[in-house]
Backbone:
């Protein structure tokens, strides 16, 4: 055992040992599952962990620590990012009141769902912890995040779910607005989810009333993520813009699609691994792009 490993063990033991041994909770000295995100499939995955603490409060602290600890598998990422500060209060009636600071609001919609699911499914393994109430920065959450939650409110998608419902953006008839489309993406191959959704954009829509945004012959060469930025490398055919589609619609069809995915906040483009100054002669292209919902066509 290295000195660093020994230090970590000592710190954890110091935080969670010393509790009363009279608590008969089901997780006492027992292995539980800590939930993370598989960065390839975007589903929840688990790593086994044996609890050290003996009382509910100690176990809650311990599992929150583990949720934010770097997973052992390099393909996994935290559903509860380290940047989010968590405060909580346990009610003996079985309710755990959890406040996530405003860093939570910066997560994508998918990441928010996965974050809450990982917290609930991990901590509900402690006997007596049954109902979860969330607040964001001390304020009630938005309507779609409100209400009491239990582990049964989240479908267990660990490792068995090979289909991801992705939100894709195609052009409208006039080529000046984006239309949102939900597509089933098969995750059984070797490609990343980023590669799969971009390839669907390249292939074009299958529904009437939606139109391609990417020129024929465009090839996706590579994608990679760093610190929330997804870099998309395309071949030179991408620069041959479709004549009836605006440059911004082309760019944001990709950007808006990608930022719907977990752990992506911005998009950077390269062409044959090189940064281009402009796209279609008039759009600055050597920068990072964030979500732009102003281009969405209003639903009739």
Residues:
């Amino acid at each position: 055992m290295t000195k660093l490993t020994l230090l970590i063990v000592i710190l954890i033991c110091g935080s969670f040992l010393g509790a009363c041994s009279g608590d008969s909770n089901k997780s006492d000295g027992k292995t539980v599952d800590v939930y993370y995100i598989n960065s390839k499939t975007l589903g929840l995955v688990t790593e086994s962990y044996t609890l050290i603490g003996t009382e509910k409060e100690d176990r809650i602290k311990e599992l929150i620590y583990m949720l934010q600890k770097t997973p052992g598998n390099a393909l996994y990422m935290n559903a509860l990012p380290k940047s989010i500060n968590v405060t909580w209060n346990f009610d003996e009636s079985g309710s755990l009141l959890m406040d996530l600071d405003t860093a939570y609001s910066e997560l994508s919609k998918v990441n928010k769902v996965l974050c809450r699911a990982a917290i609930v499914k991990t901590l509900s393994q402690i006997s007596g912890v049954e109902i979860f109430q969330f607040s964001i920065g001390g304020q009630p959450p938005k309507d779609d995040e409100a209400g009491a939650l239990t582990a049964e409110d989240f479908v267990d998608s660990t490792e068995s779910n090979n289909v991801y419902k992705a939100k894709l953006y195609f052009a409208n008839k006039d080529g000046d607005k984006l239309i949102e489309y939900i597509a089933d993406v098969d995750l059984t191959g070797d490609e990343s989810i980023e590669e799969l959704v971009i390839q669907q954009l390249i292939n074009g829509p299958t529904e009437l009333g939606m139109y391609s945004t990417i020129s024929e012959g465009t090839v996706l060469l590579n994608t990679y993520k760093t610190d929330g930025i997804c870099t998309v490398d395309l071949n030179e055919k991408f620069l041959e813009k479709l004549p009836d589609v605006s440059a911004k619609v082309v760019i944001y069809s990709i950007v808006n699609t990608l930022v719907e995915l977990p752990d992506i906040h911005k998009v950077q483009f390269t062409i044959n691994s090189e940064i281009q100054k402009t796209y279609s002669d008039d759009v600055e292209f050597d920068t990072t792009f964030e979500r732009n919902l102003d281009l969405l066509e209003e639903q009739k």
Notes: Residues 11-153 form one domain. The first helix runs from residue 3 to 16. The first strand starts at residue 31 and ends at 38. The chain has a mean pLDDT of 84.
